[in-house]
Amino acid sequence: MQALTERQETILALIIHQYIDAAQPVGSKWLVDKYHLGVSPATVRNEMASMTEAGFLRQPHTSAGRIPTEKGYRFFVRSLLGETELPANEKRLISHQFHQARGDVDEWGRLAAAVLARHSRVASLVTTPHADRAIFKHLELINTRGNQVLMVLVLMGGDVRQQLLALTSTFEQAELSQTAQKLTNAAQNKSVKGVARLVEEFDGLAAEILLLVAGVMARVDGLAAGEVVRDGLTNFLGEPEFADTTSAREALRLFEERSFLDEVLAEVLEPASVGAVQVIIGGEGYWKELEKCSIVLARYGAPGLATGALGVLGPTRMAYGRTISAVRYVAGLMSDLVIESFEGQGTGRLAQ
Amino acid sequence: MQALTERQETILALIIHQYIDAAQPVGSKWLVDKYHLGVSPATVRNEMASMTEAGFLRQPHTSAGRIPTEKGYRFFVRSLLGETELPANEKRLISHQFHQARGDVDEWGRLAAAVLARHSRVASLVTTPHADRAIFKHLELINTRGNQVLMVLVLMGGDVRQQLLALTSTFEQAELSQTAQKLTNAAQNKSVKGVARLVEEFDGLAAEILLLVAGVMARVDGLAAGEVVRDGLTNFLGEPEFADTTSAREALRLFEERSFLDEVLAEVLEPASVGAVQVIIGGEGYWKELEKCSIVLARYGAPGLATGALGVLGPTRMAYGRTISAVRYVAGLMSDLVIESFEGQGTGRLAQ
DNA sequence: TTTAGCACTCTCGTGCAGAGAGTGCTAAAA
DNA sequence: TTTTAGCACTCTCTGCACGAGAGTGCTAAA
Predict the structure, then answer these.
(1) pLDDT of residue A170
(2) Would you call A63 helix, strand, or coil by DSSP?
(3) Closest partner residue to A245 among B104, B166, B237, by Cβ?
(4) Which nucleotides of C are covered by protein (CB under 7 A)?
(5) Residue-level pLDDT at A46
(6) What is the pLDDT of residue A2?
(7) Which of A184, A204, A309, A318 is the most exposed place for a label (fewest CB within 10 A)?
């Protein structure tokens, strides 16, 4: 790839800014008039032509202005955007909201999704924290009636699974509680394998329960992420690129589909990549359903203990600066929450 | 409202059927040709004119066919549709799916939403079971590290809330477990008030925890419904009435907004109305954002113990027969699951 | 009460012309 | 060598006219 001159970079950045703002091809004269470039439209045209040649820009048709290509966006995001940060007052506002919801574990994901949707102005997506491997933490057995028992299984990292069991005979709550406590002590901090091995050391009710616990844990082990919370779907439909409903549908289908999310997370986010913000522009030629879309996402949490992912999905024509900084900041806050709750100490971002 | 003749009812029903199918105004000649009515187009035209006069039909413009008005749809649903049922083989299929997911409480809502979306071909919405009033069932305290404690509170009806506590001093897990058990025994089956009253009987850690429990329960008490699961968003966008994105946005915004759901549930569904399927057509003049939409919904569960709501949101031009029967059937299955798990006996629909 | 006939109305697709915006190219200026 | 002015060219978009098609309402006859 040939390098761009400084002036070309300036022009590219201006075109991208302008196009993100107005969703219309940007012409040379217009650009010169608006930004007082100090050169003539003809000069700008020459530069544009050469960048079109190089693949950073394209023309929807012969006599229209230029719009950025995916390559253009990528170059912009990687080389021209620099490290962006949210304004301090917005940070304070968000931090304050998170601080208030600090204790309410169920609320974290929803809040993060809402904040992301508002600041990025596109659709957001947050998975709840989820341990990379299922580690037993706590078990509770609750008698409902007859031989139905509600089993509440708490795993390390905050996963809570409810499971309804139909036992072969009825038990008193006292007996169930005793069993649960016994098993909690025995299985504490064990993995799926550990719990499975434990089955042989017990018999009767305890063994029966342990087997089910191991089963549930095995299912959790296989999941790439926890619950998914979505927000800002309507932001999506406002964008002109989705004025024709079929493309909006394509994108929304992916957004809705759990399997796609799992695929992206597996493909893009190394489990250990907490902190780094990934930008996928136009599906990177890999997901053709995402031709018109970009994804900005990051992992958050405490690697090895519990992590989750969060990000946004929007048109390629996205305000990358604002979005990336929002994703980075919210991921940081979520990491703090997770770390604070499972390790007892955070980086202190929330405390400010 | 003047009564319709039998022939008028037939014609109205045919027009609605046809319009639901093709989304195009229905003309007199077309109708006679397709359904071999045995009368001439002119006769049908006369009937159409009189029903237009009476407000059951309307014309998009002078020389177009007729389409149903909201009043027409309402009359159709109330008087002409009759009791519809899903085909037996579809019922079997659905029942089988639910049977398989029987134990997995977390999965119920997702499954119901998926089934509804598939069968109604519009967007579906399911709230998880939720007790009308918060009743204490079980408490668990889990030491994480430092003075952070994860409190898992199980309420009657299946609500499980996680709350993170920062205690004033650190405690051993054994001590926490003991306290949790003590409190579980004392607060068993108590309401918010009961738990609040209990605070005075304890001191130290126990009292501190109880206060927080009462707080969480009070918050749950105020909620109209549990978690919301959505599905089938993309079905929505396929419909021609949402080809222009702004109307799709309107509808989707409502669909996404929790507060609107709460409002509808409060307004439309009496807590005791389990089993009855409600149909809201065109917002009933009350919600003007729903002008082009209809909602079909029902409450499910065990009244007084735990209930939830489920339903679909789609264009007024909706296959009411199929949708209503799907909603009714799924609501029945969900009721069975809830009743079975909290009362130990269902109506047996699942067992078949 | 029903029906045939007919004039009328409205939408939709197509073709066409003109305005507007922007480009590429060439030749002159810096 | 780089920049700029000038100009012809291309393409989209809008408005307009026109005809085909579909459906209606009305009138008068069966």
Answers:
(1) 83
(2) coil
(3) B237
(4) 2-5, 8-11, 20-26
(5) 94
(6) 57
(7) A204
Statement: B136-222 belongs to CATH 3.30.390.60: yes
Question: Which of A160-164, B11-15, B88-92 is predicted least confidently?
Answer: A160-164
Q: How far is the CA of A239 from the C1' of D10 (A)?
A: 29
Whether the pLDDT of residue B127 is over 80: the answer is yes
CA-nearest residue to B102 within chain A is A164
DSSP letters along A71-121, please? HHHHHIIIIIS------HHHHHHHHHHHHHTTT-HHHHHHHHHHHHHHHHS
A349 — pLDDT class (breaks 50, 70, 90): very low
- The matching CATH number, chosen from 1.10.760.10, 3.30.390.60, 2.30.33.40, 3.30.1060.10, for A136-221 is 3.30.390.60
Kindly tell me the number of DSSP H helices and DSSP E strands found in chain A.
13, 10
Distance CA A33, CA A48 (A): 16
Question: Measured on CA atoms in the order A28, A29, A32, A34, is the torsion positive or negative?
Answer: negative
pLDDT at A350: 46
Question: Is the CB of residue B306 less than 8 Å from the CB of residue B131?
Answer: yes
Of the partner residues A137, A146, A256, the one whose CB lies closest to the CB of residue B344? A146
CATH 1.10.10.10 fits B6-80, yes or no: yes
Q: Phi and psi dihedrals of B277, rounded to 5?
A: -95, 125
Residue that wins the pLDDT comparison between B347 and B68: B68
Q: How far is the CA of B312 from the C1' of C22 (A)?
A: 49
Residue B272 has pLDDT above 80, yes or no: no
Pick the CATH number of B88-130+225-343 from 2.30.110.10, 3.10.20.30, 3.30.450.40, 3.30.390.10: 3.30.450.40
**CB distance B296 to B277 below 8 Å:** yes
Nearest beta carbon to residue A164 from set B144, B162, B341: B341
Interval A74-102 mean pLDDT: 93
Closest CA to B121 of B312, B330, B325, B253: B312
Q: What is the pLDDT of residues A125-153, one digit of tens each?
A: 999 988 888 999 888 888 877 678 889 89
A325 within 8 A of A90, measured Cβ to Cβ: no
SS3 content of chain A, % helix, strand, coil (to 5): 50, 20, 30
Residue A117 and residue A108: Cα distance in Å, rounded?
14
Domain A88-130+224-343 listed as CATH 3.30.450.40: yes
CA of A52 to C1' of D12 (A): 21
Nearest in space to B212 (alpha carbons), one of B158, B149, B165: B165
Q: Is pLDDT above 80 for B280?
A: yes
Which residue type occupies A112? A
Q: What is the mean pLDDT of residues B168-178?
A: 84
Computed from CA positions of residues A205, A210, A211, A215, in that sequence, does the dihedral angle turn out positive or negative?
A: positive
Domain ranges of chain A: 6-80, 88-130+224-343, 136-221
Q: How far apart are CA A16 and CA B24, in angstroms?
A: 42
pLDDT tens digit sequence for A158-171:
788 888 888 878 88
Q: Is the CB of A61 under 7 A from strand C?
A: no
Looking at the complex, report in whole angstroms how far the Cα of residue A139 sits from the nearest Cα belonging to chain B.
9
